[in-house]
Amino acid sequence: MIKKIGILTSGGDSPGMNAAIRSIVINSLKNNYKIYGFFYGYLGLFKNKVKSLKYKDINNIIDKSGTLLGSSRFIKLKKYKIKKKIIKKIKNKIDILIIIGGEGSYKGALKLNNMGLPCITIPGTIDNDIPGTDYTIGFSSALETIVKYIDNVKYTLLSHKRILILEVMGRKCCDLALYSYISSENCYLITYKNFNIKNLIKKIKKSKKKYLIIIITENITNIKKLSIKIQKKTNIETRFTSIGYIQRSGKPTAFDRILAFKMGNYAIKLIKKNKTGKCIAIKKNKIIHYDIKNIIKI
Ligand code: F6P
Predict the structure, then answer these.
(1) Tens-level pLDDT at each residue, the chain (298 residues)
(2) Which residue's alpha carbon is at the smallest distance from atom 11 of ligand 1?
(3) Are residues 231 and 260 in the same domain?
(4) Are strands 286-291 and 278-283 parallel, antiparallel or unpaired?
(5) Domain count along the chain
(6) 131 and 260 belong to one structural domain
(7) Annotated catalytic residue, options 127, 129, 175, 256
(8) Measured between alpha carbons, how far is 40 from 47 in angstroms, rounded to an integer?
(9) How far is the CA of 139 from the centre of ligand 1 (A)?
(10) Residue pair 289/132 in contact by the 8 Å Cβ criterion
């Protein structure tokens, strides 16, 4: 019977992680479970950095980005003997572990689950790159930050008739770039699928727009070199910027807070039914779950 729940946040922090922690703590305590927070992701699990969480710990966090539990990318978790050690240390302390994080964190969860530590995962990443879910906690907030940035920067571009190359996060997923492109005007979109400099320059030359923003997903190309090339070929002053961590640490939107609330709630419902090895998702506006093993390959 499940009595003690552990929780951790792992990988890149995302706005709304705190709202998810809050929801899990409230629902755990309401259902008379003991709830333990592990600090700095799987590292805290390994080092046994843990604290019993109470209502007072989750006061005043719903509007804060980051994660009150801290996060890390604990690469050593890939090693079998590290996972073995974790399980040995943790097995008598908690009955199940809830992990809020991205794809890498899901892989760790699945492995631990298979080795005997029951796990449930909640999608927390700005990248929106977890299979099976329409949205991840943090995506809406990061998108909002990018769109506000575009709304603000365009007047400077307009004043100088300039082009700006704006690099956004997303790892291999282009959703942040795509959705911010759809939400804005005078933009071109560069993703892994359509990256073609010649075409882009052709379009810019034809364009009658007084300013332009080229939104590009990170890691596709060197944006400094790209800006120099565009300026040389078009004769239009071209600047570049990478919007960076502000995308991760902007205020959580109401959408992310609500998503976090619902997913936290659902996690405890699964635990009440003794369901383990599951990952939570939202599909067509409905909160659902899958077996983690059907969503992530390890
Ligand atoms: O996964 C979230 C994310 O912000 C990605 O968009 C980005 O590629 C990566 O994390 C950056 O990682 P780090 O936190 O190690 O700088």
Answers:
(1) 889 999 999 999 999 999 999 999 999 999 999 999 999 999 999 999 999 999 999 999 999 999 999 999 999 999 999 999 999 999 899 999 999 999 999 999 999 999 999 999 999 999 999 999 999 999 999 999 999 999 999 999 999 999 999 999 999 999 999 999 999 999 999 999 889 999 999 999 999 999 999 999 999 999 999 999 999 999 999 999 999 999 999 999 999 999 999 999 999 999 999 999 999 999 999 999 999 999 998 8
(2) 12
(3) no
(4) antiparallel
(5) 2
(6) yes
(7) 127
(8) 10
(9) 13
(10) no
